[in-house]
Amino acid sequence: xxxxxDLIKKLREKTNAxxxxxxxxxxxxxxNLEIAVDILRKxxxxxxxxxxxxxxxxxxxxxxxxxxxxxxxxxEVNCETDFVARNEDFKxxxxxxxxxxxxxxxxxxxxxxxxxxILEKEKSVLKEMIKNKPENVIEKIVQGKLEKFYSEVCLLxxxxxxxDKITIKEYLNELIGKIGENIVIRRYVRxxxxxxIK
Length: 198
Known about the structure:
By secondary structure, the chain is α+β, with helices and mostly antiparallel strands. The protein is built from eight helices and five strands, in the order H-H-H-E-E-H-H-H-H-E-E-H-E. It has helices at about 5-15, 20-30, 35-50, 80-85, 90-105, 115-130, 135-155, 170-180; strands at about 60-65, 70-80, 160, 165, 185-190. The strands form two sheets. A three-stranded antiparallel β-sheet has the order 1-2-5. A hairpin with a 5-residue loop joins strand 1 (about 60-65) and strand 2. Helix 3 (about 35-50) packs across helix 8. It is globular and about 60 Å long.
């Protein structure tokens, strides 16, 4: 199939990836738009892994205030350079993630932040619920249920509210792949009138 300019534009609109990357992905996928999207997404994850060790000391603090002024989020996202901190895609990411936190109220940024005692408590509750199952099956069921637990309480594991086909981590990896710098969601605080800060 011929790779037309229109097809490249369509893929660019879907992914925001550079034109040449879109063209290469379409060539690799023989013009299949969905496969090309997956190719670009995987490339973003590979780039993110390579960039992960690099120091991210620049960035911004973004804010989201819900329309009723009873809910707000402050979010710090770091990057490697001040230049990227001023990038429109970076700013849009910070805005999107702030809004996502307001909507979903995650307890932690990543699964590594979940305290050991919370994890142990969750495991013991899960094991108690399925104690009549065979021993070799219990561990697999607990692992599966823990994945669901992470997707509820950890920001990076949650499905993005504006696009439930990807997680926040995948959205982050796509941005890293596009910008070419390490980007880290460092911390956030969610305020709601009448609630204590967690």
